Amino acid sequence: MSEDNVRPAAGESAAKPSARAAHKEPASFEEAVARLERLVARMESGAEDLDAMVKSFEEGQSLVKFCGEKLSAIERKVEILARRADGTVGAEPFDDIPPPDRG
């Protein structure tokens, strides 16, 4: 897929990576994933020169870090409903739940 077939997200410039200013932080996880997909498509197209590929790679690394941090934050917020010994149901923090027994 060529770079011409990769549409920028709303509010994102269609400029080539070498012409882009400093990378702004995505507004959401979904925006970061969409930007990553466009970067991969451009890089796989072979349309970029080496300098542009390096800049795309650096932006991709930044987006991957952003996504990882977002996922970690969400994981900490997730709660699991659990039935207690007395029969009541309550929320338990995700981090405190041991992994299921695979034995």
List keywords for this structure.
103 residues, mainly alpha, two-stranded antiparallel ribbon, disordered N terminus
Topology:
Layout: H1 29-45, H2 50-77, E1 79-83, E2 89-93
Antiparallel strand pairs: 1-2
Your description of this structure?
The protein contains two helices and two strands. The protein has 103 residues and is mainly alpha-helical. Helix 1 packs antiparallel against helix 2. The model is unreliable at 1-21 (pLDDT under 50). The radius of gyration is 20 Å and the shape is rod-shaped. Helices cover 44% and strands 10% of the residues.
Structural class: mainly alpha
N→C terminal distance: 46 Å
User: What letter string, H or E per element, gives the SSE order?
Assistant: HHEE
Please give the domain count. 1
Radius of gyration: 20 Å
Find the count of extended strands (DSSP E, 2+ residues).
Answer: 2
Residue-averaged pLDDT, rounded? 75
In DSSP terms (H or I, runs of 4 or more residues), the helix count works out at 2
Q: Profile the largest sheet.
A: 2 strands, antiparallel
Contiguous low-pLDDT stretches (5 residues minimum) are 1-21
Helix content: 40-55%
Shape: rod-shaped
Q: Which strand-content bin applies to the residues? A: 5-15%
Q: Order the strands across the largest sheet as they lie in space.
A: 1-2
